[in-house]
Amino acid sequence: MAQENAAFSPGPEEQPRRRGRQRYVEKDGRCNVQQGNVRETYRYLTDLFTTLVDLQWRLSLLFFVLAYALTWLFFGAIWWLIAYGRGDLEHLEDTAWTPCVNNLNGFVAAFLFSIETETTIGYGHRVITDQCPEGIVLLLLQAILGSMVNAFMVGCMFVKISQPNKRAATLVFSSHAVVSLRDGRLCLMFRVGDLRSSHIVEASIRAKLIRSRQTLEGEFIPLHQTDLSVGFDTGDDRLFLVSPLVISHEIDAASPFWEASRRALERDDFEIVVILEGMVEATGMTCQARSSYLVDEVLWGHRFTSVLTLEDGFYEVDYASFHQTFEVPTPSCSARELAEAAARLDAHLYWSIPSRLDEKVEEEGLGEGAGEEAGADKEQNGCLPPPESESKV
Predict the structure, then answer these.
(1) In a 3-state reduction of DSSP, which class is residue 171?
(2) How far apart are CA 180 and CA 318, in angstroms?
(3) Which of 37, 65, 173, 328 has the fewest CB atoms within 10 Å distance of its CB?
């Protein structure tokens, strides 16, 4: 009956597929987290510059246009009110009347004069006179405030344009991570590369394991973050990223995958987030590129295809093979079981060498004379013949 059940049990392809895990970090580096129920929205206004820089481009352009248009309209209305209050609009044809602003005959003219004042165009047709102290004060205020608006908005647009986010788009990660042997030890590996000829200065790499866990006290910690060592102790995490590099995490006793076999890894639920940081050589600004690997994106028993070839006087990188892997013989056991098997093998070799030497000594002793057999037996037993004085006595 058991055999019949086993015969009709669904195969790997017929079994229902496991529900896909929700990514914490997308493959393109976007963090899949949204801030909800934020009641203290005033905090965004305390850092208005960063808020404007973080806005989408269409909103940033809208604020850019509104900042100038509203200030022009505001000061244009004040110029018109000054002219209206002084009676300049009622003495347009009076040549003996000295207005606050020459040739200001309505709101449109006041608006144009406001634009000319703030942008320092100065066409020369409308000009302020020295008989208007309130206009002189307003001119000073508009000049100062206009400079502040220019500095703020132009600064926002410059920072937004020069953000290194687009530079991170040319830093690529392999589509899969692999697990295979390196120098007799299981390693988790992924590949990074830079598509530009201008390099990332002081590049460094980090890796995080995102997996929910439960403490001994029963506390559930969702999306718990654990560091994966990629060479921090040895300095291998500092990269000279001129050509694509394979980043390796050795699965040792300190690794969270120490006891994970191939089957256990396939049944597990986790996400590996990799972070590449460095300074853009052209601008000196810090750049960060991110990617992630889910369980089904970790290939056990694979290795990356080489992409570097030596041409006539230079090295060439073939990015067509950047994501390609090939299968290699890899044990399916965990790194702990592999280390224990290697330790047992080393112990067997260590103790087998003296035993073979003893067998050789025994074979040589059997070929000697009968009178020497007793002495040979004593030597094999670790005993020495007695001195001559003791034998004579």
Answers:
(1) strand
(2) 23
(3) 37
Rounded Cα–Cα distance for residues 152 and 145 (Å): 11
Q: What is the dihedral of CA 215, 217, 220, 226, to 10 degrees?
A: -20
Handedness of CA 38, 289, 175, 212 (dihedral sign): negative
Kindly give the interhelix angle for 107-118 and 57-86, rounded to the nearest 10 degrees. 120
Q: What is the set of domains in the chain, with CATH numbers?
A: 39-161 (1.10.287.70), 165-335 (2.60.40.1400)
Given a cut of 60, is residue 111 above it in pLDDT? yes
Q: What is the mean pLDDT of residues 224-251?
A: 92
pLDDT in tens, 350-366: 666 555 555 555 565 55
Tokens at 31, concatenated: 């963090």
Exposed / middle / buried, residue 288 (Cβ in 10 Å: 0-12, 13-18, 19+): middle
pLDDT in tens, 66-86: 999 999 999 999 999 998 888
Q: Which of 329, 296, 326 is nearest to 181 (CA)?
A: 329
Q: Are strands 298-300 and 177-182 parallel, antiparallel or unpaired?
A: parallel
Structural contact between residues 226 and 272, judged by C-beta atoms closer than 8 angstroms: no
Cβ contacts of 174-177, under 8 Å, gap ≥ 24: 174/304, 174/322, 174/323, 175/27, 175/297, 175/323, 176/293, 176/297, 176/298, 176/299, 176/302, 176/323, 176/325, 177/272, 177/293, 177/297, 177/298, 177/299
Backbone angles phi, psi at 150, to 5 degrees: -60, -45
| Residue 365 to residue 370: CA distance in whole angstroms | 10
pLDDT computed for residue 149 by the predictor: 92
From the list 115, 112, 80, the residue with the least C-alpha distance to 99 is 80
